[in-house]
């Protein structure tokens, strides 16, 4: 059972990244790739900045769940308090990039399933609390505000500027 938990908590990040890379390389229309990749970069940087501010301003506890319980961790972790979850941040950021830039429903659903599985695995492995996962989701949601530019047609205007 420990191997399954470790595989879910750590291993599901690999298919999330691979699927995300595939979809973002091959499903974003060629004419929109520059603007899409710029938004993805800015969303990622904004998410990282928000996450670091969140971690600096507030840490719900100084120890991870396995440390509080005095047991071995069920997955890999960094030596920090764990808020917000880096795994959740990356998973949700990739999911939002794929959804907002491609609207590929099937790929987005597959990614969402993997991200939920990853987050549940991190909690079951006792390396994160549900609050750490929610913190990662919030950071990724704030970063995804860059995709609003696409929804409001800003990408067409910037694409025309770059091509002329």
Structure commentary:
The protein is globular and about 55 Å long. The mean pLDDT is 92. It has helices at 2-11, 13-26, 33-57, 65-69, 86-102, 105-124, 130-143, 148-151, 154-163. It has one domain (2-58, 82-163). Helix content is 73%, strand content 0%. The chain is an all-alpha fold.
Question: Would you summarize the structure shown here?
Answer:
With 164 residues, the chain is mostly helical. Helix content is 73%, strand content 0%. It has helices at residues 2-11, 13-26, 33-57, 65-69, 86-102, 105-124, 130-143, 148-151, 154-163.
Q: How is the topology of this model organized?
A:
Blueprint lengths: L1 H10 L1 H14 L6 H25 L7 H5 L16 H17 L2 H20 L5 H14 L4 H4 L2 H10 L1
Helix pairs in contact: 1-6, 2-5, 2-6, 3-5, 3-7, 5-6, 5-7
| Amount of beta strand | under 5%
Radius of gyration using CA atoms only? 17 Å
Tally the structural domains. Answer: 1
Can you count the helices? Answer: 9
The major pleated sheet works out as: none
Computed structural class = mainly alpha
Features:
single chain, 164 residues, mainly alpha, 9 helices, 73% helix, globular
